[in-house]
Design brief:
Helices cover 28% and strands 31% of the residues. It is an alpha+beta fold. A seven-stranded mixed sheet has the order 2-1-5-4-3-8-9, with helices on one face.
């Protein structure tokens, strides 16, 4: 896992509209970058809806919210439309950002070992440096936790 003070790895991925989005596009703003397993699953939906609910609070703090999973652009588009998600969802089918941010790990799924995305959220500062890193986040609490971590910002 990347730690506080590390330079956030650059990436360029497609969003839910098929547009290319790069981390460097957001220099001068804080970036809440969260990695999740799969669109339309219970925990991931709860997490996304919490970020949507708090989205105005993030924009007030000059921050953007970006969710990344290995789902396709089409899956992200349906997910965003279904739940009215106002932020960017990036498709990482090749696991480029997922691996660069060290969130592709072995997990236990019903007693079976599988590889998958470990729910992780990074707060990246205006200069592209990791300000905070949160692992094993609780989906319903993650958005509030991120806002709290920005309170002094």
């Amino acid at each position: 896992m990347l730690e506080t003070g590390n330079k956030a790895p650059e990436f360029t991925l497609q969003d839910q509209e098929g547009r290319e989005v790069s981390l460097k596009d957001f220099r001068g703003k804080k970036v809440v970058l969260y990695f999740y397993s799969k669109d339309n699953t219970a925990g991931c939906t709860k997490q996304a809806c919490a970020f949507a609910e708090h989205y105005p609070d993030f924009t007030e703090k000059n921050a953007v919210v970006i969710g990344i999973s290995k789902d396709t652009v089409a899956s992200h588009k349906k997910f965003a439309e279904k739940y009215g998600l106002p932020f960017i969802l990036l498709s990482d089918t090749q696991l480029e950002a997922v691996q660069a941010y060290d969130v592709w790990k072995e997990k236990n799924l019903y007693g079976k070992k599988v590889m998958g995305v470990v729910r992780t959220t990074y707060l990246i500062d205006e200069n592209g440096m990791i300000e905070k890193a949160f692992t094993k986040v609780k989906p319903a609490e993650n958005a509030g936790q991120m806002l709290e971590s920005m309170a002094g910002a």
